[in-house]
Amino acid sequence: MLGTLLTFFAVGLITLLVVGLVLSVVGTVFSLAFGLAGFILFKVAPVILLGWIVLKVVERRRDRGKLSRADREWLESGH
User: What span, in angstroms and rounded, lies between the C-alpha atoms of 71 and 48?
Assistant: First the structure.
């Protein structure tokens, strides 16, 4: 009887230790993931968005209807 109780106690203690370790690892992984997501969302994404907007503004200001001299010569040569 006492041996059975000690076995249950040992199994319960080992289970608690393993579950605590697993939850600690899962918490660390989630913490790192949320930290990385926050960094990308609030530090990297605004810079990328600003760069994209600047490129679109510069692209619209260029006169895209004009051909370069090399393109015009290539078209006129009949290739």
Answer: 32
DSSP helix/strand/coil, 63: coil
SS (H, E, C) the chain: CHHHHHHHHHHHHHHHHHHHHHHHHHHHHHHHHHHHHHHHHHHHHHHHHHHHHHHHHHHHHCCCCCCCHHHHHHHHCCC
CA pseudo-torsion sign 66, 67, 69, 73: negative
pLDDT digits 0-9 by tens, 36-67: 999 999 999 999 999 999 998 888 777 666 77
What's the whole-model pTM score?
0.57
